[in-house]
């Protein structure tokens, strides 16, 4: 099968959707399919190796699109290519926080009404490239690309799959009238895809309701990660080795260090790996940690906060550091912004628990699967896709949303129960392999693609 995946790049920070699309593309390629991974807007920022065949241009390059939106001109070919330079785009991405909400709204609506937009030049380049490659399947990595479906159908013979990936939060953050207009355009255009897919049943149901499409079929395709050692990506924790000094040896090496009663290194660490923003609940995390140490009197717990941090996030991080300093806990918290793959391995290997107490309806949460694969038990809000993943994996606890005290209490109870931590760790490793591996994602994707009328194999 010939497959093209159009994925929105971020340029300057790691993006779960980009990592999902790259992992899927690599797995499809390894299985013998012809796969092209096509960056859109900005270069891909990945913490793993990219698809070997992914030497493709950046489509709808962010600077070109911005200028065309503002100036309504066709940019000459040489200048167009220059402005699509990856280094230049990465530099622009680091300043994207300076773009106004109105400008985001104008751009999003123009992309959803692409026939009436100034982006015909960009659309032509994409369609010309696809016409040469002749894919059987085109996967749009986000529903915000749905404005292209009509033009793609007019000019190409290709089956179009469109994936949801947290679009509601972005759209709800737009000012009016762009917010309402964008939602209306999505309602009109998404049913024109051959198939809609969602990373969780929760998000499929949410978007069906938000789009006012109660009978719209949306298939569930959970995100997956590579557990392959050859790629040096996150792996399942190894099975425990015999331990002559304990009647009941721990199930995971990382739990030996942090959670077993009567061992030497008793500094359990709670981890967070996501963008450092309020929507991901990092402020609740800090408040819960202060409560754990001061009110619940946990004597030695540490906190490790890692993940993407852009220039626009620095103010919040500074405020949280001040809050920790006022609580005399600065030395008990590690901050690791924009970590690479090796640093991610080290991060997970040092954790006893993992929490990202997001405050919005998270569509999936790839960070949860990474924690499962590393054998780290989860404590998450009883909301969104978290409930679905924890119920399926049996690898964590759910607490009241937006409740730092409940979060801290759950941490305290689990850190006092090494036997339960060992059980949750083992369940997580098993669930990662069975439900959330890249192979499981690939096989489900192929089954959906091959079920489409007249699709090729």
UniProtKB/TrEMBL annotation:
Residues 264-430 form the Glycosyl transferase family domain. Its EC number is 2.4.-.-. InterPro entries: Glyco_trans_1, Glyco_trans_4-like_N. GO terms for molecular function: glycosyltransferase activity. Pfam families: Glyco_transf_4 (PF13439), Glycos_transf_1 (PF00534). Keywords: Glycosyltransferase, Transferase. It comes from the Bacteria. Coiled coil: none annotated. Residues 232-255 are annotated as: Disordered. It is an enzyme of class 2 (transferase). Belongs to the glycosyltransferase group 1 family. Glycosyltransferase 4 subfamily. PANTHER family: COLANIC ACID BIOSYNTHESIS GLYCOSYLTRANSFERASE WCAL-RELATED, GLYCOSYLTRANSFERASE. This is Glycosyltransferase family 4 protein.
């Amino acid at each position: 099968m010939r497959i093209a995946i159009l994925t929105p790049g971020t340029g300057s920070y790691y993006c779960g959707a980009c990592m999902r699309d790259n992992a899927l593309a690599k797995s499809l390629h390894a299985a013998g399919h012809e796969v092209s991974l096509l960056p859109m807007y900005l270069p891909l920022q990945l913490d793993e190796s990219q698809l070997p065949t992914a030497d493709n241009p950046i489509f709808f390059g962010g600077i070109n699109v911005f200028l065309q939106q503002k100036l309504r001109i066709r940019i000459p070919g040489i200048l167009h290519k220059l402005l699509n330079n990856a280094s230049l785009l990465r530099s622009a991405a680091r300043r994207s926080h300076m773009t106004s909400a109105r400008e985001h709204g104008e751009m999003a609506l123009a992309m959803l009404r692409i026939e009436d937009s100034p982006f015909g030049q960009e659309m032509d380049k994409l369609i010309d490239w696809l016409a040469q490659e002749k894919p059987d399947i085109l996967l749009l990595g986000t529903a915000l690309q749905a404005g292209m479906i009509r033009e793609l159908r007019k000019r190409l013979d290709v089956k179009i799959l469109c994936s949801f990936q947290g679009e509601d939060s972005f759209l709800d953050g737009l000012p009016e009238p762009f917010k309402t207009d964008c939602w209306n355009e999505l309602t009109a255009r998404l049913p024109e895809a051959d198939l809609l897919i969602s990373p969780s049943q929760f998000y499929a149901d949410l978007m069906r309701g938000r789009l006012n499409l109660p009978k719209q079929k949306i298939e569930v395709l959970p995100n997956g990660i590579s557990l392959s050692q050859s790629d040096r990506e996150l792996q399942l924790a190894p099975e425990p080795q015999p331990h002559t000094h304990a009647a009941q040896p721990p199930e995971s090496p990382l739990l030996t260090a942090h959670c077993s009663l009567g061992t030497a290194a008793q500094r359990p660490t709670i981890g967070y790996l996501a963008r450092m923003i309020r929507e991901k609940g990092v402020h609740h995390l800090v408040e819960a940690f202060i409560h754990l140490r001061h009110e619940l009197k946990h004597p030695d717990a540490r906190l490790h906060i890692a993940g993407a941090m852009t220039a626009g996030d620095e103010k919040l991080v500074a405020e949280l550091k001040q809050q920790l300093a006022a609580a005399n806990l600065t030395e008990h918290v590690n901050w690791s912004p924009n970590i690479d793959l090796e640093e991610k391995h080290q991060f997970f290997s040092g954790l006893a628990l993992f929490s990202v107490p997001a405050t919005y309806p998270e569509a999936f949460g790839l960070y949860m699967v990474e924690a499962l694969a590393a054998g780290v038990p989860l404590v998450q809000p009883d909301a969104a896709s978290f409930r679905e993943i924890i119920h399926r994996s049996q690898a964590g606890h759910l607490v009241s949303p937006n409740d730092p005290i409940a979060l801290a209490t759950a941490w305290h109870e689990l850190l006092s129960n090494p036997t339960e931590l060992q059980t949750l760790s083992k369940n997580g490793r098993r669930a990662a392999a069975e439900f959330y591996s890249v192979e499981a994602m690939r096989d489900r994707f192929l089954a959906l693609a091959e079920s489409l009328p007249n699709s090729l194999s």
